Amino acid sequence: MPSKKALKKVPSFKSERAEREFWRKHDSADYLDWRKAQPLRLAELKPSTRSISIRLPESLIQDIKVLANKRDIPYQSLLKLYVAQKVEEELRQA
Question: What are 37-64's pLDDT values in tens digits?
Fold first, then answer.
């Protein structure tokens, strides 16, 4: 039977940045018994987003607004959908 090593106590962190730095330098196996780990589903977790500025011709914006109105969704949401679809398509082809 393999011997169990004593697990170290996970320290408290003053910030997320401090925690990231700690885990970058330390092996989590010294702090956690990964054999006891169980899958976790984070269904409500939303991906981080960041605002960007993009300059588009007014006519293109108006066309997107018309299409979004037909779908009854905000035009920014339709624009995100179009970008995501195109990126997915390009990644599949790569």
Answer: 999 888 888 888 899 999 999 999 999 9
